[in-house]
Design brief:
The structure is a homotetramer of 295-residue chains. With 295 residues, chain A is of the alpha+beta class. Chain A has four helices and 17 strands. In chain A, the strands form three sheets. In chain A, strands 3, 4, 5, 6, 7, 8, 9, 10, 11, 12, 15, 16 and 17 form a 13-stranded mixed sheet that branches. In chain A, strands 1-2 form a two-stranded antiparallel ribbon. The longest helix of chain A is centred in the middle third of the chain and has 16 residues. The first copy, chain A, is elongated. Chains A and B meet through helix 1, helix 2, strand 9, strand 10 and helix 3 of A and helix 1, helix 2, strand 9, strand 10 and helix 3 of B. Chains A, B, C, D: GO terms for molecular function: formylmethanofuran-tetrahydromethanopterin N-formyltransferase activity. Chains A, B, C, D: It catalyses: N-formylmethanofuran + 5,6,7,8-tetrahydromethanopterin + H(+) = N(5)-formyl-5,6,7,8-tetrahydromethanopterin + methanofuran. Chains A, B, C, D: Catalyzes the reversible transfer of a formyl group from formylmethanofuran (formyl-MFR) to tetrahydromethanopterin (H(4)MPT) to produce 5-formyl tetrahydromethanopterin (5-formyl-H(4)MPT) and methanofuran (MFR). Chains A, B, C, D: InterPro entries: ForMFR_H4MPT_ForTrfase, ForMFR_H4MPT_ForTrfase_C, ForMFR_H4MPT_ForTrfase_fd-like, ForMFR_H4MPT_ForTrfase_N.
Chain lengths: 295, 295, 295, 295
């Protein structure tokens, strides 16, 4: 199929289960909420080398936050065991310490819940307080009082939704990917965890040519500069640059919506020449997102 | 002493040794370099709960980078053993994967050097290349070729330079701290690792009231909302909000310069009423930065 | 009445009729659309000295723009005669010249329409083209082809919706006003035309003390630093700083919604102590927005 | 000649005299200074349809501003008669009304001076005050007191320094131009007045094909999409997109430096294929900036 004149590969993205928790960070202004959210979701691109995968889901207007202040929603994704630990650490180190912030459970209806004991930081000076119907702790700190929830929900979501943006030159592929990342930022329930929402270097599990153990190496099949040296290359003729959008979401529907919005945005960028997606031939992940069925 | 009419406490900030490495990240534009730098220095506020302390030192103009592209300099601070590991992980996960980036050793003259083997990611498709007199590796990736140095310097620097900005209301203290953080961003050789460069919640080692082991709890002596309940409070009368600027630097001179610049900026903000600093009475850290001697 | 514990003055804002046109600017990314929109709405704070009043209404998602690209909506407000001239000039100088932009009529259903002859810029190299059901002109330019509509709608809207944010110190009043401006940015059909959405210096018509003609001078009744010298001061006791939010909108309902959203946001900022509004005792403007009836 | 492998046309940019004034805007933080500066330099791309040409010269650190606060420097360019009027209007409407700002003369040593009577806005509540050795007026306003200088210098500078960035696709040309604009932002004494610092649509004086009077039409010689229809086209074969950087500066040296910095940045962007410049064969402007002599 084609979209805006750009061929869409007849393939699918292969996704995996991952546990996802949503934290709503509010602040005195949107900017201060975003400052904390950015720090809290840093160093969280890929579970291969980072403690988790995390990203900014979007702004939450003051009407929709428990304390009526402007907010930013973040998703933190990892194994079931690691999510509580990472939510704890990232709130404790990056949000409690940030100016004017509060945190709230962004998944109050999730069946799976966990508790982070941040109030111990109060050293018994803390107290319980209700905010917008939520049970919170009020902890005296230097700026005044920190207020936040401690019970959070998590759901079994999807990691690894993805697509590739290709072009015959790097700047076009980059702008296509950037337009896609912007569009995905508007889709609720999803994040792109890499810097700027874009992946410049895809990887394969292990190595083909190095014999010692190594968790991941470059996915040479998608490397345009060595296209001639890789017999089973998947780089289409003429393509000189590829960026990948990797999407985590709270469920399959959200990931599909994000993939569709991202691809629609990318094909609007003049010069984007091909859209494809990455999979393991269906052998590894239970979710298959066929590109042709997204639209 | 007073500065712009604001009393400066007759005290000192107490600093500690820490190992510091500088990584120069370049990109096709300043914005793309900053995108990678922001991700790479996230989740790195405090060594208590984060893998390292890291932050953005500043922009590096194209004239000063090895590849002649616009750059952002970051500092990564940790123990001597942990610095190489963290430089490796943060480059591998957050910069190699980011769009259009290269990395260069920001401390070529440091005696202490270490080597990160990122080129193994190339799975033997990589090759050596010289850029601006630097030995780099060129690794084929999806966007094209990633190019970066792998030998980095590190120096024994200073952690914990600090000062407090106080006011009789929270917004004034916040704006004073923000003005200080902006000013410190201009001082070479230093970073402020917390979100927005500001700390809202200072901590003490361990707990006073909880009996189980806990690494850090709120520093109640500097908590304005419980001033009346804390006999040895250090909150001056009338102060309702305090923010701390915590500064790491490559040496004592840089930290002093950053403290001076930050304090000068803070006292310009109308309503800022007192500047102090945190220490352990000189018992823990070898560096003492007396506020009165900064100017 | 009180809102979040902050007294809301028993008064009203007085508004005036103004003609309003909406221009949708799209770009290859949201950022490039915003770059053009910012230039196009600059030097447009107040009709007293600027050619018009203009501001950014908000983002428009790709789903809602005629060309399926990300957009920014701006409102341009002036007299019925001046609106077409200003829409023409600001598109011709600031948007046609900006990178990757298109413009579309943001009020296709308005009865009042006008035509701007930008296609003459094409010097007969231009041609007609339809985009998303809109009749556009395609003009060859250096970057490629500029595409845009030339017929725009305008409606009789409202200028001068307003409220005051007061506090006993400047930084608190400023942050209260900033939070309000952020909230108003989310309300469709409205803009705040001043820098950052905030007015620091209110004015009265003419002068009291200077005898020569002068269009506007400081509104001394609302100046905290001369409160003691102005017998009919309207500065409440203890108030040391006031910022005004001035809102233009497409109709009364939009202005009311923006006032309500802004005030609700402002009273959430700790230390904001009073909310009022400006009027001419109902003598000049046909619209009266009573604060108490907004909520 | 070539630069980084990109051919640099053997031609020159033709510049014109223009009067230039520099205004230093300071604020409580850098961000608030920038907010005012952005509004004050809006709707000021080209003297053809805007009241002046204006832009942001750069940040001024607190050490270098008269009031010791962070600043942003702007340049306002027009005829000798219009500069004072535009400096007056843009300060009065966009800076005096903006939060926390002060303004200072950025050309204290210029021989040519002018006086703007903003203090009349004070309606005789104003008073004189000295700040950092500068004679200022203090005017009571709603936020507190506005403080600013009223005597400004202006110099006979240069308008129309320029170069073209070309590529075989639009996104590459755009990123090349963006990298150039970023680089020019670092060169003191210069501005790029168009949105984002980039011109997408160059113009020629008058029209060739329309017979009625029209001040400017598209410069068809530099339009890639009609290359085949324009016998005297100057679009090199294969070029599909061109952006222009137009630079105004305080003197010839500054413009040269900006052109050199911009071109060096542009040729670093992969895919940029040609750099040229615009002139009127030396018939109109007294300044000629030969590209080959810039480096």
């Amino acid at each position: 199929m084609e979209l805006n004149g750009v061929p869409i590969d007849n393939t699918f993205a292969e996704g995996f289960p991952i546990w996802v928790s949503r934290v709503i960070i509010t602040g005195v202004t949107r900017e201060w909420a975003m400052t904390a959210a950015t720090e809290a979701t840093g160093f969280a691109t890929s579970a291969i080398g980072c403690p988790c995968e995390a990203g900014i889901e979007g702004f939450v207007s003051a009407d929709e936050t428990p304390d009526g202040r402007p907010g930013v929603s973040i998703l933190i994704c990892a194994s079931k065991k690691k999510v509580p630990e990472q939510v704890m650490e990232r709130i404790a180190e990056c949000v409690l310490t940030a100016a004017t912030t509060s945190v709230f459970n962004g998944m109050p209806d999730a069946e799976e819940k966990f508790d982070i004991k941040i109030h111990f930081f109060g050293d018994k000076f803390e107290s319980k307080v209700e905010v917008g119907g939520r049970q919170c702790w009020k902890i005296p700190i230097m700026e005044g009082d920190y207020i936040g929830e401690e019970v959070f929900g998590m759901v079994k979501g999807v990691a690894g939704g993805n697509f590739f943006v290709m072009a015959d030159n790097q700047m076009t592929a980059l702008m296509g990917a950037k337009a896609a990342a912007d569009a995905i930022l508007d889709v609720k329930g999803t994040i792109t965890s890499f810097a700027g929402g874009i992946v410049a270097s895809g990887s394969k599990v292990g190595a083909k040519n190095y014999k010692f153990p190594i968790p991941a190496t470059t996915n040479e099949q998608y490397c345009p500069t060595i296209r001639e040296k890789v017999p089973d290359t998947k780089v289409p003729e003429g393509v000189k640059s590829i960026y990948e959008l990797v999407i985590n979401g709270v469920d399959e529907a959200a990931v599909k919506k994000a993939m569709a919005a991202g691809i629609k945005a990318a094909v609007k960028v003049p010069g984007v020449s091909f859209i494809s997606a990455g999979n393991y031939e269906g052998k590894l992940g239970p979710f298959q997102f066929k590109l042709a069925e997204l639209f």
